[in-house]
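Our preliminary data section would be incomplete without showing what the modeling component actually yields. Below, a chain of 296 amino acids is followed by its predicted structure, encoded as tokens that our downstream tools consume directly.
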Amino acid sequence: MQVRSGTLIEWLVPMAFIFAAGWVVWHMPAFTLTFFPPTDPSEFDKLSALFGRVDVTPGLSGLFGGTADIVDWLAMIFIPILIYIGVRTVRRAGMEFESWKPADRLAVFIGRITMMLIVCLTSVMLYEVMLRYVFEAPTLWANEMSLWLAGFVFLCAGLYAMQQRSHIRIVLLYDAVPRWLQRVFDTISTVLIVTFAFFLIYGGYGEAFDKFYRWETFGTAFDPPIPATLKPMVLLIVGLVAIQAVVNLISDWNKEEVHYGGDDLDEDEIARIKAQVGTDGVGDIDVTGQHVSAKD
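Predicted structure:
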């Protein structure tokens, strides 16, 4: 994988994906009414009223005899196109893990989307703070929007952490055993992850589908569809994490030596920190193995 990150396209594609996916999510009732309208009249009326309240383009008529208009369809079409472009154009940064299978590309692209979501989350919070404390005109939507975005950030960051092998692990025993036994440990952990994902998806699919189909909302003034989106998203991300765990096992299987106890530190970053601190900033190593200040 090429070590070159931060190009303009790596900013634009994730942001375009967030915009397209956000549009589709916000107008998802239109697609439900188009393809799978509820048979219960009360549920149909409820979903229609919800869509009428949140529709951003009420002046446009639906296509193909449905409720979704041309903008909704364009956003839906752009989602797989942007995923393909993003997966093809993403580049590994210098500090990222050197693994580059197709599943790794997808996980890294989702990581880039997560980074852009953090930018969006921060912008929403700053906007709310400015309106609340400067103009004394707080919004009705910023708090729920922050919760909504933070939920997606939390879930997507978990997949990226799995791909980067940066999740929390206790390596005291792992680093002390030979490589063949490390492979046994890796296999056991992967089997446990896949088993957990299977039973979670198997047991939670019904509830998640029900919330998604009814488009359950949060019940506030802004009333975003947090339950309808995050419940299915949990199952999707857990499934992708399980797949990524299998990919990690295959990718790392033939490695002669694997240690996670600090041998993978970024030497360039350490050199930059030392240059900023100066030669007097650190001294001898104490009994805990940590550097102590020379002034101490």
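The CA atoms of residues 196 and 242 lie 9 Å apart. Residues 179-214 form the longest helix (36 residues). Preliminary results of this kind motivate Aim 1 of the renewal.
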